[in-house]
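<instruction>
Derive structure tokens from the sequence
<data>
Labelled lines for chain and fold
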Amino acid sequence: MAVFDTIYFILWGDLITIPLPGGSSLGLPLLVVLLVLAGIYFTVRTSFLPFRLFPEMLRIVAEKRSVSEKGAISGVQALIVSTATRVGMGNLVGVVAAISAGGAGAVLWMWIFALLGSSTAFVEATLAQIYKEKDPLYGGYRGGPAYYIHHFFCRKGRKRSLMAVLFAFSGLICWCGISQVIGNSVSSAFTNAFSVPPIYTTIVLVATASVIVLRKNATVKVLDIIVPVMAVIYFCITLFVIGKNIGQLPAVFERIFAEAFGLRQAVSGGFGAVIMNGAKRGLFSNEAGSGSAPCAAAAADMSHPAKEGLLQALGVFIDTIVICSCSAMIMLLTPDNLTRGLEGMDLLQTAMQYHLGKFGVIFIAVILWMFSFSTFIGILFYARSNVAYLFGDNWLSQTIYKVLALVMLFVGGLAAYTFVWDLGDIGIGLMTVFNMAALIPMAGQALDSLKNYEEICRKRKHR
């Protein structure tokens, strides 16, 4: 436990403390420092890619989908898989927690850090495409950070790199922890909304997940349906709530900007909380830099590596600027006196009940089920390449890990074990550190790929 606590503190504790006006301070954990600096560096090196190439991202989404390799998935399907894991519990309760702790101003910082994360997502997804391999088990391609880390650190003649092994192992630990969080979140939401005993919700959840993840190639087909449906429904409900309260919208945006840079927050000692809660939500909701999404990006059959990089950069926009903002608007358009003293799922369900009545409570429970379920089957898609890197190409190791994740999903549905949740936090923290160790020195290859792709685009326009 002492070793565990030490690692947790190194990753998530305050590495640097900056004094602020009003007697407050800004504590910066190692992971936030690492991701923010990397995001700034990649944004500058790509000439502000999230803004400059946003139209090109949309054009790639609208392109005709085609794959040349049997069993492979398209770039848009890879985007859907990564969106499934990004859009989860954090987009609902996580945003609520950020605003509760940091105020409305946390939303603006969430947007800013997410845009920085877009550039990081581009670099890691492009590298994943460059170093992808044929997948002899599932067909198509596989890859991700374990594979480009291997290429960077492994000496000739060795089958595995220690750094790549550590990344892959950290990922498997993280995703087992997330599985338990998902089970607990879904069972709690259904208990609150329908008074359903956790055991029944958990059995249905695990049984449904088993049917999908234990089949060879059912994951992507299911996510192709679930993810667009859940995202569109949630977005449309939010538009309805905004339309219903359209007169309050200018005041909400004024509050977001005022509290993000406001004198009152600085004087009251809360300015650090505003920045940090926005930073953590923006950085860790979209997973940019953690090395998760590249596991999906590598599976895409793309004509150019940079195209998948641009799609994954768009995925960060979808997750934070669109979906997280939906949750923020639902909460900020609710009177403060109704939500004061509440937190987490209780706060979100109260806000939805204010806007939509009893239907709002039911809607949040159902949409949370969809978000969480898609996250679970998405992370098991990620796990494929990491299990293969560690244990080789065999169905036994693949199946054992899936069963382990299903057991964690079941256990989480019945009880919350803080230790396992913290283990998940440690897993994603270590993934980020190991990923960055290769990502920063290898970034030049992704930048060269982007330069080549832009040259191709210029030639296409001049034809």
In short: The CA atoms of residues 211 and 218 lie 9 Å apart.
